[in-house]
From TrEMBL:
Cofactor: FAD
Record keyword RNA-binding present: no
Domain Acyl-CoA oxidase/dehydrogenase middle: start-end pairs: 114-210
Protein name as annotated: Acyl-CoA dehydrogenase family protein
Keyword Nucleotide-binding part of the UniProt annotation: no
A family per Pfam: Acyl-CoA_dh_N
Domain Acyl-CoA dehydrogenase/oxidase N-terminal: 9-110
Record domain Acyl-CoA dehydrogenase/oxidase C-terminal: where: 232-389
InterPro entries: Acyl-CoA_Oxase/DH_mid-dom, Acyl-CoA_Oxase/DH_mid-dom_sf, AcylCo_DH-like_C, AcylCo_DH/oxidase_C, AcylCoA_DH/ox_N, AcylCoA_DH/ox_N_sf, AcylCoA_DH/oxidase_NM_dom_sf, Mycobact_Acyl-CoA_DH
UniProt similarity note: Belongs to the acyl-CoA dehydrogenase family.
Keyword entries, A-Z: FAD, Flavoprotein, Oxidoreductase
Length: 408
């Protein structure tokens, strides 16, 4: 379709979808597949890949029409890594075959994705990763996907992997050349989490749950047809993933007084006996800051209409982490003795993180991870300083040293 498509055309297509597949009588998965095929999944994507080649701003027209009709969504919190990180990376660097294979089941939610980036010795310094991918030109592949490029054999360990216990696919970066500086010897792959050699172990967190995992890769064979981008260019590909990750974490669309500030404000209104002057002042300050962050997120999404996410997403993720931690701390103090209670310490492996559906103790503990996951606040401050404010980069002595020669 032409990129000149307008709101009236998008609304008409949405109404045609609803007429052909009434939400009340259509199976949820069937409806989502039909929506994808109609180009109404993410309208700014190419036609045939869930989109209409339309302006991103028209997505709100689709969403409003579907919400009014009671249509099901694709449970975006459960498949957030696929939607927010894997999909834009596949769109930007994938082959046509990869786009056709992965984007539809990803968006519909039939296949969950996880991210195999961080390692025990490569978290904030992600480019120092040591998981190795060695090309086996002669080896027979276990997969019919293999082309003339042969297989890659992957060995290593990844950590802090959300949803690995339910994921079918993973976006993976591994070192393919140890003889060049660390940023230049990395390649980017799509890993099948059901393949032999992939072992997922739970990591129990301070909340008692294990939404995170550590993943061990032992002789895992990945066909070259599942590589994204050129060999050795994985760091560049990963930047697309990371920039989108920070936008998806810190820039989610929420209504006014939504999210955690809404929970605290509701408690404040419903339980006047808990109020003090000091808590009132802190609540007002955080309410204003949360609203500023929300409006800044709206502006960021408007900027995305014209291009790709940039370092601004890092600033949003910084604000998200700080606000969540301060708001949850205020909530615990506001509730007094009740705020010290913790309802359930059961070891579970949830499919998603539910901040607003749990008690204050859970929110307080879980928010501590917000300044670590998706890029530590310290790393993001460096990104904002260098790429937004234009400040000089910190001196580094490892940029031109081969990875194999780095001290570890």
């Amino acid at each position: 379709m032409s990129t000149a498509i307008d709101a009236a055309q998008v609304r008409r297509l949405t109404q045609e979808l609803l007429a052909a597949h009434p939400p009340a009588t259509t199976d949820r998965t069937d409806f989502l597949k039909a929506r994808f095929d109609a180009g109404l999944a993410w309208v700014h994507y190419p036609a045939g890949l869930g989109g209409l080649d339309a302006p991103r701003s028209l997505q709100s027209v689709v969403d409003a029409e579907l919400a009014a009709a009671g249509a099901p969504d694709n449970d975006p919190r459960r498949i957030g890594i696929g939607l927010g990180m894997a999909a834009p990376t596949i769109l930007g660097y994938g082959t046509e075959e990869q786009k056709q294979r992965f984007l539809r089941p990803l968006w519909v939610g039939e296949e969950v994705w996880c991210q195999l980036f961080s390692e025990p010795g490569a978290g904030s310094d992600l480019a120092a990763l040591g998981t190795r991918a060695v090309r086996d030109e002669e080896g027979a592949s276990r997969s019919s996907e293999a082309g003339s490029g042969g297989d890659w054999v992957v060995d290593g360990q990844k950590v802090w992997t959300s949803s690995a216990h339910v994921a079918r696919w993973a976006i993976l970066i591994a070192r393919t050349d140890p003889d060049v500086p660390k940023h230049r010897g990395i390649s980017y792959f799509i890993c099948d989490m059901t393949d032999p050699g992939v072992e997922v172990r739970p990591l129990r967190q301070i909340t008692g749950e294990a939404e995170f995992n550590e993943v061990f890769l032992t002789g895992v064979r990945i066909p070259d047809s599942r590589r994204l981008g050129p060999v050795g260019d994985g760091w560049k590909v990963a930047q697309t993933t990371l920039m989108n990750e920070r936008v998806s974490i810190g820039g989610a669309r929420i209504p006014r007084e939504g999210g955690m500030i809404g929970t605290v404000a509701k408690t404040w209104r419903e339980q006047p006996g808990l109020r003090t002057h000091d808590l009132h002042q802190r609540l007002l300050t955080l309410w204003v800051e949360a609203e500023v962050a929300r409006l800044t997120g709206e502006r960021l999404r408007q900027q995305l209409v014209a291009g790709q996410p940039g370092p601004e997403g890092s600033g949003m993720k910084l604000a998200f982490a700080r606000l969540n931690q301060e708001i949850s701390g205020l909530e615990v103090e506001l509730l007094g003795d009740e705020g010290l209670l913790y309802s359930d310490w059961t070891m579970r492996r949830p499919e998603l993180v539910d901040f607003t559906g749990r008690d204050a103790g859970y929110r307080y503990l879980r928010s501590k991870g917000n300044s670590i996951e998706g890029g530590t606040s310290e790393v993001l401050l460096n990104i904002v300083a260098e790429r937004v404010l234009g400040l000089p980069a910190e001196p580094r002595n490892d940029k031109d040293v081969a990875w194999k020669d780095l001290a570890r």
